[in-house]
Design brief:
Layout (H helix, E strand, L loop, with lengths): L1 H7 L29 E3 L6 E3 L12 H16 L4
């Protein structure tokens, strides 16, 4: 506002910097519990256990992983030319 008034009064105004303010929308976390069971074969006595579905093996979904990667990149670039 002061720059506009200064320029309107005949002064020269230049942009010093652009400040960005970033906010995330409210989100509802999705937490899924996968219960893995094991059992013993009644014929041979071997133990068999359930396999975790591939999409849950990392423990984090793709959107959460992308957010962490983005924030890590921002943090890593602070102070670098």
């Amino acid at each position: 506002m002061r720059l506009r008034l200064y320029a309107a009064a005949g002064g020269i105004a230049a942009i010093l910097y652009t400040h960005q303010w970033i906010e995330l929308p409210e989100i509802a976390m999705q937490v899924k519990h996968v219960v893995l069971k094991k059992g013993q074969c009644s014929s041979c006595g071997c133990w068999v256990k359930a396999q975790l579905p591939k999409e849950y093996q990392t423990g984090y979904g793709p959107r959460f992983s992308a957010l962490v990667a983005e924030l890590s990149g921002i943090q890593g670039s602070v102070g670098r030319p």
